[in-house]
C-alpha cells in the first residue's frame, strides 16, 4: 500500500459519527511499519479494493474501517508464539482501536462475526498475531437487538431470589443415568435448597435419556419440590441440538415443566440463539463449549469479554462462564471482566446473570462471593452438590448453610459446627481451592 | 484420580465396537503423569462423575471416552505458549488417540462440537495446551448426515466443467458499490471466461446493495452471459445472515437467478447449514471466517482439517479455504490436508470441491495446480480478475489463457506473447508469489 493510500484508513474519532461505527480494540503483533499493518487491518475487513479499474471513485470515506488510535507498546525479536510458516524479523506489539462502519453489514450477528473475526483481521498482511480484546456498540446498533428477555433483575423477580446468589446444581452422573434416577437426584437437590437443577452441557437428547421423558419427570419433580419447600424451583433443560430442533424442543420441555432452557452458545451458533429468543417463553442460559479454543492464549484469538457481550446481545438471560481458581485456567481479571460485561450498561440491553463456574462447592462460595464483590451471581457446583457425601439434598443444604455463614459474617468452620451438611462439605471438598 | 480409576479410561481398540465410537486425535501438553492427564481428558468429555453417592454402579464401560493410544513425544521445561495463569514445571508433549462413544449425544453437530471441543477437553486438569488434530467418524454416524447434495462430481455434471479447475471470481469493489454497477462487473467477468462470479464474504444484504435487487440483476446478467458464451455460468450469492433468514434468502435469490449460495460457515453455525441443506435447491459454498481464530497456532485449538470435514458433513458442496502462499499464513501441508479432507472417502458422504484461495491471479494458477496435483479444485481470485488492468473480462480471460498454457505444457510467458490479457496479468500481478 502506498503512503497516500494509507491515510485513507486513519481518522480522528471526533470526525466520525459515533452512532454509525462499532469500536474494535485489537492487540496485534505486526511486521514492518505498524501504520501500514494497521491500514491493512482496516482495508482487509472493509473496502479491500475501493475502486473499479478505470473509474475515478473511492469507497473509503463512507465504507472503510479506520484506525482511531495506534499505540506501539513494545518491539519483540519475533512473534510471541512460534508460527508455521515462521515470521522472520522483529515485530511491533501494538494496540489498535478501529472504527468499523456497520452499514457495511447491518445488525446481524453472523455478518458482525465475519467482519471483526473473519478473513479481514486474521489474514491482513503483516499481522500474523492478533486478538480482538473488546468491542463496543453504538445504541443505534444495540437497539436492533432484543437482548435478554428477563435479565438479572427479571430473574430475581420471577424466581423470588433476593439478596443472595442463585444456587444452581449440575445433576451428576451427567452421562449414562436413566431419566427416573436422574429426576430423583434433581428432586433431592431442590429439597435440599437448590434453586436451579440443571442438565450438564453434555446431556441433551440421547436414546438412553430422551429429553421428552426426562423433562416430563423433572418438570413434575420440580413442582413437587415447590410444594414441599414453598420456594420457586427451576429445572434448566439442555436443549442444545441441531438448529431446526431448538424451537420444537423449547416448546416440548416448557410444556413438560422445564422453566428455563440451556443452549451451548457457540456450538449451536449465536444467531440461532437470537432466533430462539424471539419465541422463548422461559429464560435462556448459555454454556461455554468452544470458547476456550479461541480465547485461552493471552495474545491470540478473541477475548472472552467479547463472547460474553455477544451472548448477552443474542438474548441470553444467564451466561455460564469459566470461573475462579486454577482449575478453570482463566486469570481472575478476565473472569471479573466477563462478569462486568454481563451487568455493565449496554444501551437498551438488559443485564444478564453471570455464573462463573468450575469445581465449586460450599467451600468455594466465600471466595467467589468476595471476588465478585456482591451477590449478583449464580453458583453452579456439580460434584459439590451431587457428589456430596450426604447426597444431593445434603450438598444443596451445604450451599445454603455456607451462604448463611457468609451473610452473618461467620467463618464456614464455625457455622459447620452446628450444620452437619456444611461440615461434611468442608471435609469432602476443603480446603478452599 | 486414583490409579484404579485411571484404568477405566483406557481400552484396547480391538475390544471396542468401531461403529459406536468417534476417533479423536489430540496433541496435548500436560503436567504430571501423562496417563493421569489422558484419563482426565476422557473423563471430562464423558462420564465425569460415573456413579451416584451410595450406589454401586459404574457408567464408564459403556459411556466413557477411552484412551486407545498415548505416546509421549517429548518433554519441555514449560508450555509452548506462555499462559496466564502460567503453568509451572515440566510438561510432556503427547499424542492421544481417544475413542468417544457417540451414543452420549447422537448424530448432532452442536453436541459433537460440545463433546470434542468443549469444557471436557479444554478444561481437563493437567492439560492446559491442547489441539484437536483429527476426527474420524464410523459409517453408522456418517449415514445419519446428508453431506453435499451435488458434490464435486455433481458440480462438474451440473455446470459442464470438465478436466479443468472451476474458475471463481470475487466481484470487487466488494463493499460500497451499487447493485447495477456490481452486476455489470459480474457480467464482464462471465463474458471473459469466469464460471462463477461471487459476492465477497463481507457483502450480504446491506441497505446500499439489497440482496433482492442485487440477485435479480446478477441473475439476469448471468443468463445473458450464458446466452452469449454458450457456457454454464453461476452467480454465487452470499446469503450469510441471521439463521432465520437463511431459507427465505435462499428461496429469494434462487428465484432471482442465483444458482449457488454462499454461507460463512462458522459465523452462521454448521448446524444452521445442515438445516439449509435439507431445503437447498442449489449448491452450498462455505467461506472461512472465524476458523483461523481457532486454528492458526500449531499447538492449540483445532486443526483446519477437522473444520473441513465438519463443513463437508454439514452439507457444503464447496469449501473455500485459506490456500497456498505466504499471504494466507497456512503451511502448505495443511492446505493439502484440507484439500484431501474434501475429497477422501468418507462413507456415504460425497466429496466436496476444495477452493484454496488467497491473492490469486493468472500468475499463481500454475503453482496451485501443481501443488494440488490435478484439476479438481476451484480457483478464486478477487483483484486478480476485478483489478486486472484490462478490467474483469480481461482478468477472467487471463485465467483461461493461463489454463490453456498449463494444459499445453507451455510456460505462461510464452503463451502471453500472443495473449494480451495474460501478458497484462503477468505484468500487473507477477512475478509468481
TrEMBL record, chains A, B:
It holds the Pfam family RuBisCO_large_N. GO terms for molecular function: magnesium ion binding; ribulose-bisphosphate carboxylase activity. Gene3D superfamilies: Ribulose bisphosphate carboxylase, large subunit, C-terminal domain, RuBisCO large subunit, N-terminal domain. Signal peptide: none annotated. This is Ribulose 1,5-bisphosphate carboxylase. Residues 155-429 form the Ribulose bisphosphate carboxylase large subunit C-terminal domain. It comes from Halochromatium glycolicum. InterPro entries: RuBisCO (IPR033966), RuBisCO_lsu_C (IPR000685), RuBisCO_lsu_C_sf (IPR036376), RuBisCO_lsu_fd_N (IPR017443), RuBisCO_lsu_N_sf (IPR036422). Residues 19-140 form the Ribulose bisphosphate carboxylase large subunit ferrodoxin-like N-terminal domain.
Amino acid at each position: 500500500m502506498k503512503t497516500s493510500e494509507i491515510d485513507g484508513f486513519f481518522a480522528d474519532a471526533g470526525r466520525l459519527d459515533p452512532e454509525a461505527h462499532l469500536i474494535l480494540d485489537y492487540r496485534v503483533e505486526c511486521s514492518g511499519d505498524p501504520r501500514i499493518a494497521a491500514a491493512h487491518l482496516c482495508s482487509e475487513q472493509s473496502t479491500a479494493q475501493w475502486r473499479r479499474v478505470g473509474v475515478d471513485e473511492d469507497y473509503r470515506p463512507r465504507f472503510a474501517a479506520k484506525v482511531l488510535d495506534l499505540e506501539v507498546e513494545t518491539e519483540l525479536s519475533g512473534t510471541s508464539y512460534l508460527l508455521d510458516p515462521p515470521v522472520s524479523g522483529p515485530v511491533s506489539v501494538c494496540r489498535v482501536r478501529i472504527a468499523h462502519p456497520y452499514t457495511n453489514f447491518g445488525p446481524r450477528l453472523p455478518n458482525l462475526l465475519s467482519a471483526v473475526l473473519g478473513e479481514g483481521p486474521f489474514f491482513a498482511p503483516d499481522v500474523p498475531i492478533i486478538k480482538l480484546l473488546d468491542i463496543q456498540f453504538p445504541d443505534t446498533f444495540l437497539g436492533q437487538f432484543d437482548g435478554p428477555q428477563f435479565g438479572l433483575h427479571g430473574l430475581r423477580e420471577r424466581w423470588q431470589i433476593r439478596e443472595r446468589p442463585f444456587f444452581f446444581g449440575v445433576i451428576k452422573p451427567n452421562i449414562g443415568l436413566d431419566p427416573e434416577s436422574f429426576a430423583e437426584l434433581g428432586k433431592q437437590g431442590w429439597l435440599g435448597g437448590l434453586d436451579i437443577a440443571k442438565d450438564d452441557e453434555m446431556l441433551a437428547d440421547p436414546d438412553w435419556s430422551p429429553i421428552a421423558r426426562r423433562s416430563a419427570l423433572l418438570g413434575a419433580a420440580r413442582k413437587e419440590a415447590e410444594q414441599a419447600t414453598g420456594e420457586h424451583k427451576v429445572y434448566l433443560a439442555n436443549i442444545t441440538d441441531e438448529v431446526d430442533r431448538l424451537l420444537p424442543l423449547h416448546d416440548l420441555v416448557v410444556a413438560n415443566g422445564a422453566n428455563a432452557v440451556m443452549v451451548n452458545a457457540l456450538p449451536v451458533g449465536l444467531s440461532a440463539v437470537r432466533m430462539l429468543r424471539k419465541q422463548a417463553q422461559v429464560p435462556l442460559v448459555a454454556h461455554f463449549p468452544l470458547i476456550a479454543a479461541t480465547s485461552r492464549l493471552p495474545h491470540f484469538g478473541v477475548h472472552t469479554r467479547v463472547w460474553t457481550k455477544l451472548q448477552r446481545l443474542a438474548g441470553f438471560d444467564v451466561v455460564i462462564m469459566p470461573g475462579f481458581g486454577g482449575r478453570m485456567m482463566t486469570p481472575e481479571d478476565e473472569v471479573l471482566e466477563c462478569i462486568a460485561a454481563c451487568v455493565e450498561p449496554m444501551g437498551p440491553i438488559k443485564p444478564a446473570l453471570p455464573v462463573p463456574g468450575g469445581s465449586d462447592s460450599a467451600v468455594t462460595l466465600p471466595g467467589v462471593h468476595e471476588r465478585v464483590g456482591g451477590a449478583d451471581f449464580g453458583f453452579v457446583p456439580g460434584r459439590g452438590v451431587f457428589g456430596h457425601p450426604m447426597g444431593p439434598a445434603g450438598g444443596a443444604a451445604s450451599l445454603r448453610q455456607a451462604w448463611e455463614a457468609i451473610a452473618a459474617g461467620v467463618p464456614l468452620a464455625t457455622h459447620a459446627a452446628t450444620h452437619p451438611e456444611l461440615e461434611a462439605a468442608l471435609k469432602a471438598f476443603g480446603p478452599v481451592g
